[in-house]
Amino acid sequence: MKRRIVLLSTAQAFAACLLSSRAWAQQSEATMQQAIAKFTGGITPQIGKVQIGISQLVDNGNAVPIDITVDHPQERDRFVRRIGLFNEKNPQPDVAEFDLSAASGSAQISTRIRLATTQKLTAVAQLSDGSFWMQSADVIVTLAACIEVE
Description:
- The chain is built from one helix and nine strands, in the order αβββββββββ.
- By secondary structure, the chain is α+β, with helices and mostly antiparallel strands.
- The protein starts with a helix and ends in a 7-residue tail after the last strand.
């Protein structure tokens, strides 16, 4: 009798964890999309022009190198104005925002970020004509960083 109770309790706990992790993943995606919408002023970005250089498999999420390049000239009348980097599962969905100008020379950013766990990253670029372009990358993190304990 005790074994059945233990098995039933374990199954219920597993089901509750599975359902809550699915809800958290959906909430994380929605939170990231809200941060992107705030960055773009509600304009839906087009896919393309932006390249994200990051390893698909990261051993340690504490300092992950990332390069963002936008295939667009940096000329006086045509240039990349801003680049935003967003993520699904870090405590804050907006990782960084970079302001550029025609004098920047090239639309390329190199930095290091912390990743809490395996997740999707999205980079969004705003061009001087007001258009927005984006690209996403999935990253698998084996040793997580910046986990908040509640």
